[in-house]
Amino acid sequence: MATSELSCEVSEENCERREAFWAEWKDLMLSTRPEEGCSLHEEDTQRQETYHRQGQCQALVQRSPWLVMRMGILGRGLQEYQLPYQRVLPLPIFTPTKVGTSKEEREDTPTQLQDLLALETALGGQCVGRQDMAEITKQLPPVVPVSKPGLGRSLSRSLSQEAQRG
Fold first, then answer.
1. Which residues have C-beta within 8 Å of that of residue 26, sequence separation ≥ 6?
2. Which residue has the higher pLDDT, 56 or 150?
3. Which pTM value belongs to this model?
């Protein structure tokens, strides 16, 4: 089965606005496949000969970055499919309001965002089961410095002096 692919790459850069766009996709794929229901098989037992022939067709698949896929058999027309959009944000992208506009000129806050803000204000910005740091440290065992047996005081003092000297 032979396959040919055509890839597309698009890149665009706008230095003034500090924007860049880059996309790459497999645009066209043409493959040769055995055609269903189009095969011939003959066998002659007296002469001990066999003949087999399988019909072939060229399958075409075309993709685009606009989520449109066309597929079918070359020469017979293509069927077009609109693919579902996968990368959807749960909320519309937030764009900050322009500085200097009055409150009357601004757009209303989306209802989904208003619901989230209402939930945050109801919780008071705090976790329900929150504990103070003193309560958490009170539950922990006391910290005891680790001392190695056999390590003399003079050795530890000389090591610290060497560390200070560099």
1. 5, 6, 7, 8, 63
2. 56
3. 0.41
